[in-house]
Write a structure and sequence with these properties.
By secondary structure, this protein is of the alpha/beta class. Helix 3 links the parallel strand 5 and strand 6. Helix 4 packs antiparallel against helix 8, helix 5 packs across helix 7 and helix 12 packs across helix 13.
Length: 436
C-alpha cells in the first residue's frame, strides 16, 4: 500500500503512524520535554522502508495528562497501544527517556523487539537526587525555568545561536508540557537503573551519542556498549543531547544502516526455534570503565528476623530513606558512621525507615506533615532542615509547608515556630531557586 499518515489519541498514549501499512514497524521514542516532532527530519527517509510509529509522553504535545509511575509503566502503555493494532514485533529507537523505554523493552519484553537504537541514553540517568530536585523546582516554579534552560542542555551553543527558530521551538515545547506529568517522568528517571542488567539485552543495539552531549555523553554511551553483548558505538561530532534535531542527516543515515542490517529474526512457533545470529564481537574499551567495581564489605550482624518469620526491613528502609532524604544526605550520614554510631544508623534505617516510613497506612506527604510538626514540637531544629527538603521531595509545596508551620505556632508555641520558619525558609530558598 502507499504511504499513509494517521494521528489520534488513545487513553494510554498519543501516537502517530506514517509509512506503508505493509512495511515492518519501527518505533521512535521521544526525550523528556519533547514531542514526536523531534523526529520530523528523520521521517522522509525512514518511511521508505518502515511503517514508523511515533508517540508522545503523557502530558506532552497535548497528550492526555495521565502521569507514569515508572519507566516500566510507560513501556506497558506503549505495548498496550501497539496491541490495539496487532503490532507484535518491531524495531525501536529512543532518545534519553525514550532510550530507557528501549532498554526496558529489551530486558522485560525481548520477544517483541527485533533491533534497538539507544540515543543520548544511559543505564542510569545522573542521580536520583538530581531528578527529584528538578521535580521540586517544577512543583514550586512551574516549567518556565526548565524551559528557558532547555536549549543549553539540548544543543551546542553554536547551533542554538544559529537556529533561533529551533531554539524557540524547544522552549515552547517544554513550556506547554503538563507539569504533573513532567514531575512524574523525573521520578521515573530517578528510579531507573539497569547497570547490573545490561548483559541481558539480547538484540543488536546501536548506541548513538553526540560528541558534545553534557547530559548523557560519550562516557555513558561507552558504559552501554561495554555492557550490552551485541552493541556498537556511534559518536556524532558537533552535536549535543538532542542529536536527532541538531545533526539530522547523520542520525538518519546511522538509523537506516542499523535497522536495515541488524534485525533479529523472530521466534518461529512452527519449528520451536529461533535463528541464531552471528556471535557478536565484545567491545574492548581503551580506558577504565566509568563505574568502578565496588569493594565488598563485611556487614555488621543483624537480628535474624527471617528465623522469627519476619522479613528484614533494612533493604526496604535504605531504599525509602534514600528516596525521601536523597542519596547525598544518606551517603554523608553513613560515611560519618563509625563503630560507635554505626549501630544507631542501622537502627534508624531498619525501624524508622523500614518499619514506619514504609507502612502503607499514610502516604509520604502525610508522613512529612506529621514529621515536621513533631520536630517543631520537640525543638529538633537540627533535623528540621533535612525533613523540609524531604517534604518538598514528597510533594509538599512551600505554601503547604508554611501552613504546617503556622499550625505549629498555635499548638507548639510561637518561639518554636519562629525558629522553624527560619530554618525552613533557608531550605526552601535553596531548593526552589532555579539554577540559571
Amino acid at each position: 500500500m502507499g504511504a499513509v499518515s494517521e494521528t489520534t489519541t488513545t487513553p494510554a498514549l498519543q501516537y502517530r503512524f506514517d509509512g506503508p501499512e505493509d512495511a515492518p514497524v519501527l518505533i521512535l521514542g521521544p526525550s523528556l520535554g519533547t514531542t514526536w516532532h523531534m523526529w520530523d527530519r528523520q521521517m522522509p527517509d525512514l518511511v521508505k522502508q518502515w511503517r514508523v510509529f511515533r508517540f508522545d509522553l503523557p502530558g506532552h504535545g497535548g497528550a492526555h495528562a495521565y502521569p507514569v509511575g515508572s519507566v516500566a509503566d510507560l513501556t506497558d502503555r506503549l505495548l498496550a497501544t501497539l496491541d490495539r493494532f496487532g503490532v507484535q514485533r518491531f524495531g525501536y529507537a529512543g532518545c534519553a527517556l525514550g532510550g530507557a523505554v528501549g532498554m526496558e523493552l529489551a530486558l522485560r519484553h525481548p520477544e517483541r523487539l527485533a533491533s534497538l537504537a539507544l540515543i543520548a541514553a544511559s543505564p542510569r540517568f545522573g542521580s536520583a537526587d538530581e531528578f527529584r530536585q528538578r521535580g521540586v523546582i517544577v512543583r514550586t516554579n512551574g516549567l518556565d525555568p526548565i524551559a528557558r534552560t532547555s536549549p543549553e542542555r539540548w544543543f551546542t551553543s553554536g547551533f542554538a545561536a544559529a537556529q533561533p527558530a529551533i531554539t524557540d521551538w524547544a522552549v515552547q515545547m517544554v513550556r506547554t508540557t503538563d507539569p504533573g506529568c513532567y514531575i512524574a517522568a523525573c521520578e521515573a528517571l530517578a528510579a531507573f537503573d539497569v547497570r547490573a542488567e545490561l548483559a541481558g539485552v539480547g538484540v543488536p543495539t546501536l548506541v548513538l551519542v553526540g560528541s558534545d552531549d553534557q547530559v548523557t555523553g560519550p562516557a555513558e554511551a561507552r558504559t552501554l556498549v561495554a555492557g550490552i553483548p551485541d552493541a556498537r558505538l556511534a559518536v556524532v561530532p558537533g552535536a549535543s543531547h538532542l542529536v536527532p534535531v541538531e545533526q539530522p542527516a547523520a542520525v538518519t543515515d546511522l538509523l537506516v544502516r542499523h535497522f536495515s542490517t541488524a534485525w533479529q529474526p523472530a521466534f518461529d512457533s512452527t519449528t520451536g526455534q529461533t535463528a541464531i545470529p552471528t556471535a557478536p564481537v565484545t567491545p574492548v574499551l581503551t580506558s577504565a570503565p566509568p563505574h568502578p567495581v565496588p569493594i565488598a564489605e563485611i556487614a555488621p550482624a543483624v537480628p535474624d528476623l527471617q528465623a522469627a518469620g519476619r522479613v528484614d526491613p533494612y533493604d526496604a528502609g535504605i531504599k525509602v530513606r534514600r528516596e525521601v532524604l536523597g542519596d547525598a544526605h544518606v551517603d554523608g550520614v553513613l560515611a560519618q558512621a563509625d563503630d560507635f554510631s554505626g549501630d544507631f544508623q542501622e537502627l534508624l534505617t531498619r525501624y524508622a525507615w523500614g518499619e514506619i516510613w514504609d507502612r502503607p497506612g499514610l502516604d509520604r506527604r502525610s508522613r512529612s506533615i506529621a514529621t515536621l510538626t513533631a520536630l517543631v514540637a520537640g525543638g529538633h531544629l537540627d533535623e528540621l532542615a533535612s525533613h523540609t527538603r524531604a517534604a518538598l521531595r514528597n510533594g509538599l509545596t512551600p505554601s503547604e509547608i508554611k501552613e504546617v508551620l503556622l499550625q505549629t505556632a498555635v499548638y507548639c508555641g510561637v518561639p518554636a515556630a519562629g525558629s522553624a520558619f527560619r530554618v525552613a525558609q533557608q531550605v526552601i530558598r535553596e531548593e526552589t531557586t532555579p539554577t540559571e
